[in-house]
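Action item from last week, closing it out:
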Amino acid sequence: MAFIDTPETQKANRRFIREAMKVPLLEKEDELELARLWRENDDEIALHKLVKPYMRLVISTATRFRSYGLPVGDLVQEGNIGLMQAAAKFEPEREVRFSTYATWWIRSSMQEYVLRNWSIVRTGTTAAQKSLFFNLRRLKSRIESGDGKLNDAGREEIARCLKVPMRDVLMMEGRMSGNDRSLNMPVGENGDGEWQDFLADDAPNPEAITMDDHDSQVRHNWIEDAVGELNPREQVIIRERRLSEDSLTLETLGHNLGISKERVRQIEQEALNKLKVLILKQAGDPSVAGLLHA
């Protein structure tokens, strides 16, 4: 996916970063006091004072995700969401530094944003797949062979390190090796064609769909007409055993009709033989007559 930072956006981002880096960090006691004021009194001034010094954490984390081709400004915005989530869930009574707690939320928020926007194809759904996505490049650079390529032994080592199947490593490597392309991207020497023009459509065309629907309706009518020629008990057995999505057992039908399940089986077989003859008279096609025997 293509993301473009305009010069104006880049300038605004630089200004924001400069201002954020000027704010001094808080002492632990100040963090806890501000967190208590926000948690117990909904003091928005305290909230602002609590999160503003840690914008630098957001910026620092955003720079580590730049390699995924997303604008730093967007990453910072996502990180700020994570920072606010951390402030909402922070429990000062645990005596943990807010900066330590917020780091996890900031990173998690950015990772989710990267996974959502790095490709139009969903990249990782499980925790293991997400870990593979964010660690594959680092591990590849560490264990690549001399020619700069990753061999099967290297892939097996990555799978072992991250505790994922080898097939997941191969899949993720393939996804990360190329970028998304627009179906309307020009192709050819003169650019007079589009990539989508060369994609095969395996779905049936409208004419085939119409013919199939027509043939299905004809076969349905043949079967219905033939079933109508059976006696009432035969019709009940055939409809409940062969024409119903939830077919009844021989035993259940026998109980309903007051006969043994063996007698139900015999009547069913006799009715099927009658139907075969009746349908052949209409259609002259043995394959249609065999539908009820499936």
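Closing note: The mean pLDDT is 80.
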